[in-house]
Amino acid sequence: MQFNKVLDDVKLYEAGKPIELVVREYGVDEKDIIKLASNENPYGTSPKVTKKIQDIAKNMFMYPDDSMFELKEALANKFNVQSSNIIVGSGSDQVIEFAIHAKCNKNSKLLMSNITFAMYEIYGKQTGATIIRTKDDEHNLEQFSKLYKEHKPDMVFLCLPNNPLGECLDTKDVYEFLEEVDKETLVVVDGAYQEYAAFKDEKKKIVVDELISKFPNVIYLGTFSKAYALGGMRVGYGIAKKQIIQNLYKLRAPFNITTLSLAAAIEALKDEEFVIKCIDENFKEMKRYEEFALDKGFSFIKSYTNFITLKLEDKFISSEVAQNLLQRGIIVRDLTSYGVNAIRITIGSNEQNTRVFKQLEEVLKNLK
Ligand SMILES: *Cc1c(COP(=O)(O)O)cnc(C)c1O
């Protein structure tokens, strides 16, 4: 059967492996499995949110409030913008989809960093658009600038901080670049890990209301999946000037997040204390990974997120390391499909990380 030709060139997203698969394929006991492959919050969801969802479960027979009034009000408050500047999606993934489909067609060009979030390319190719990438793995604004002038792309993607590498540009440099960009170009600033970056280094912090008022062609994306520990609930959002939001809305199906998701996100915003505690712990634990890497002679990318990317140089092959860890019940992300010999490990809890170091130590010894 024939399908839309543009799909021939669309690759499938490779998600982090689920715990169920490791139980099934390697017979590891579920309680011994540590999943550090999808940058979830290892401390679980705030107990206040869990309780709220249990209370709200009785309302499941009803559609959620399609205006998402309360959630948008809470986000508007947090970011000092209007509700009309906000669109909520089933994960910020869906907002990326809306933005690309609203802006692009087969004649469009999308500019992004060489190694960055895979969904930009996937949604881009669904429209038949051309993908342009910088040469360096990490975000390099000089290269962005040069390619921008050369190709005049319809969209530019800045992942701040970047997944899967963890690096983050300084906001002042981003602003400088944005000054050069034509107002017809839609720039996506993906802030999936902004909470972490802003905590670690003031220079990386993005003030959203300032960003979108200075640059009316920018859409900022946030998610509840990482710092807010709601990956399973699928809630994300985009913030931009009204005209952008109104156009994205034309692609949205009604009730695009669930009654439970909506309640969970609203409640999560009331417990910022929990989020800060998790982030603080995250960076304490990250130090242990940095020390481990130094000790083993790997280089790592300085990370402003809840994961760390270890470059294995020519010492080991990342797919082998990941596979051996998997057999021991530890799920990490091999970055071979991104074209680098590296593994990305979500920073787990103290206890989880201790086990990771022990297992990784043994795996490396065996592979030597
Ligand atoms: C996790 C992530 C997202 C979106 O996640 P959702 O669960 O769809 O909200 C977007 N961008 C980056 C860079 C991410 O790492």
UniProtKB/TrEMBL annotation:
According to the UniProt entry, which residues carry N6-(pyridoxal phosphate)lysine?
A: K226
Give the required cofactors. pyridoxal 5'-phosphate
Entry keyword Amino-acid biosynthesis: yes
* Residue ranges of coiled coil: none
Pathway, per record = Amino-acid biosynthesis; L-histidine biosynthesis; L-histidine from 5-phospho-alpha-D-ribose 1-diphosphate: step 7/9
Q: What class of enzyme is it?
A: transferase
Which one GO biological process term can you cite for this protein? L-histidine biosynthetic process
What are the Aminotransferase class I/classII large domain coordinates in residue numbering?
Answer: 31-358
Entry annotated with the keyword Transferase: yes
EC numbers for this chain: 2.6.1.9
- Domain of life, per UniProt, equals Bacteria
Output the NCBIfam families linked to this UniProt entry: hisC
Record's subunit section: Homodimer.
Family named by the database record: Belongs to the class-II pyridoxal-phosphate-dependent aminotransferase family. Histidinol-phosphate aminotransferase subfamily.
Question: What is this protein called in UniProt?
Answer: Histidinol-phosphate aminotransferase
